[in-house]
Structures are given as C-alpha cells and as structure tokens.
C-alpha cells in the first residue's frame, strides 16, 4: 500500500470558531479523532504520516499506527428558526443572545440534532515528535488542494518524509538543559570555557577558516571570540574537516544553521532564511551573497540546500 501524508487540524473544544459541532478534548500528541462527515476520512490509512496542526502553527509529526472505528451519535447544532439552513453557527460570550447563525438569526440555544455516525481514532503510539520553525505557509505550499476549512488534507509525501528525517533537530525557542546542581565559581568558569570550545569547533578546522577570512560568512562580524566553525554537512570523519565543507559563523547564526533555519544556494551562493525569520533582524542578510574567501564544496551545499528546501516548502533549484 502506498504511503501518504496528511495534515490533521486539531481544534480544541474551547477554540471552535463555528459551533456546528461540539469539538473534542483530546491529546494531539497521541491521537486524532474524526468521523465519516470529514473529507478524506476513507483515505487515511495505517502507516501514513500525520502532520498535526492547530489554526496557527505546526505542532508535530507522527506515523499512524492504528485507526480503530466505532459507531456513535454525533451532536450537531442547528439554527432553531424554521426553514433556516445556515452554513455556520457562532457562539458569542458577550451578547445577550449567545448564538447567531450565518443567515443572521439570533437565539439563546441552538437546536441539537442527533445523527448516526462512525468515529475513527488515529493513534500515533510513541512516534509523535514536535515540530518547530516550519511555517504554516510552507504547509500550505505543500498541500496541493489546500482548503482553509479542511480538517484532513493530503500533503506532499516527500516533503513529509523529509520532515520525519529532520524532526530531531527542531527545538523550542525556550528549550535548554536544566542545571541539576549549582556550581561554585571555579566550576562555573570551567564549564563556560568547555562550552565555548565545543561551539567553536575542532581547533585546526577553525584555525584554517580563520586564516582564510576572520569574519562571519553571513553577517561579516569580525569579533573572533564569537566566531564558530560550522560544517556545511555534518562531521562524519576527517574528510569532512576540509575547509571547503566549512563556514565561519557568529554563534547565533551557527545555531540557526544547525536548526536548518537558513541555507546557502549552491549555485549563486546567496543566503536564504526560513519564512519564520523574514520579519526578524536576520532578514537584513536574506538574499545576500555568502561572505567567504575559500571555495565551498558544491555537493555539500546542494545536500544542505535540498534539506532546507524540503523542510520549508521551497523549490530545490
């Protein structure tokens, strides 16, 4: 059976915009609940990839392990006005008449209709992983028949598979190690020095890059103390320590690179930031040419560019 990928819009009961149904109180990291009134309900299969979102952002990605089903009675809210068949019903907390339908009728309580339905529950097991730094615009681009009201929509399978491959490097902006016990002053200084050395990279590799150009390849920053040696493709063996596979990056830029939030175009060597950063101070470097004095490894740039493009829904060329 051919694997497919789907976006699941997880809307909590308290976040419903239109109250034609009652919504769900579920844990989106473990399961997704839907019924036979939802588009694509017959197409979702075990083994498919699920990208879970809310209204504003991508939450995570998972593999569907099982989809049990069962009959249930679906509650649907209707306008009580005779012969009125609105598309939407809204609940308004601050109005005397709490309910209003899209045809303009206002009322205290909706008419509740009970319908025979089939409920499906897509379980992820332990496969769920959080996603960060992937914009909703990227998801929309990778959804061939995107519909703003769709709860389940098919997503480009290759893009989804690449998200699965790279999901482990996505971190929350607030995510960091916790200090299990306080350090004394000497231990603290030694720990800081160790961390700085680790971030600067292998000494010889960094020194070779500094000899070529003592500036950040993106920002032009010339403060050597905060310049770090970054590998274009991850270090695997000594062959990856050739400076053609290296960039000198300011420490914050290095972190963004590790998170695949920017990449360098392999043909014109221009810098491209992820959509989530285009309204930040980093946009000043967007589409600028990388600032290096040594030849860069084109296959390495191409590999990294394709990874970045797949993550953020860009064309790879």
UniProtKB/TrEMBL annotation:
Keywords: Endonuclease, Hydrolase, Nuclease. One of its GO terms (molecular function) is endonuclease activity. Pfam families: HNH_2. It comes from the Bacteria. InterPro entries: HNH_nuc. This is HNH endonuclease. It comes from Enterobacter asburiae.
């Amino acid at each position: 059976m051919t694997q497919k990928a789907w976006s699941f819009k997880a809307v909590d009961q308290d976040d419903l915009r239109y109250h034609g149904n009652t919504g769900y109180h579920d844990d989106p990291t473990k399961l997704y609940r839907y019924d036979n009134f939802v588009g694509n309900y017959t197409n979702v299969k075990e083994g498919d990839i699920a990208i879970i979102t809310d209204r504003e952002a991508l939450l995570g990605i998972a593999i569907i392990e099982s989809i049990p089903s069962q009959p249930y009675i679906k509650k649907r809210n209707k306008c009580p006005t005779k012969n009125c068949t609105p598309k939407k019903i809204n609940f308004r907390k601050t109005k005397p008449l709490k309910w209003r339908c899209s045809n303009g009728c206002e009322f205290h309580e909706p008419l509740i209709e009970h319908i025979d339905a089939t409920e499906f529950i897509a379980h992820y097991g332990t496969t769920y992983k959080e996603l960060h730094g992937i914009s909703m615009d990227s998801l929309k681009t990778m959804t061939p028949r995107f519909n703003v009201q769709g709860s389940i929509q098919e997503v480009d399978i290759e893009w989804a598979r690449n998200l699965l491959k790279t999901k482990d490097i996505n971190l929350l902006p607030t995510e960091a190690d916790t200090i299990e016990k306080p350090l004394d002053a000497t231990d603290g200084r030694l720990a800081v020095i160790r961390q700085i050395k680790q971030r600067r990279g292998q000494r010889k590799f960094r020194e070779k890059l500094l000899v070529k150009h003592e500036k950040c390849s993106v920002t032009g920053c010339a403060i050597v103390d905060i310049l770090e040696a970054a590998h274009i493709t991850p270090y695997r063996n000594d062959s990856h320590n050739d400076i053609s596979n290296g960039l000198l990056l300011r420490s914050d830029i290095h972190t963004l690179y590790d998170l695949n939030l920017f990449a360098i175009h392999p043909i014109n060597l221009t810098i491209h930031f992820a959509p989530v950063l285009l309204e930040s101070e980093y946009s000043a470097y967007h589409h600028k040419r990388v600032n290096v004095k040594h030849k860069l490894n084109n296959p390495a740039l191409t590999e990294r560019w394709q990874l970045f493009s797949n993550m953020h829904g860009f064309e790879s060329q």
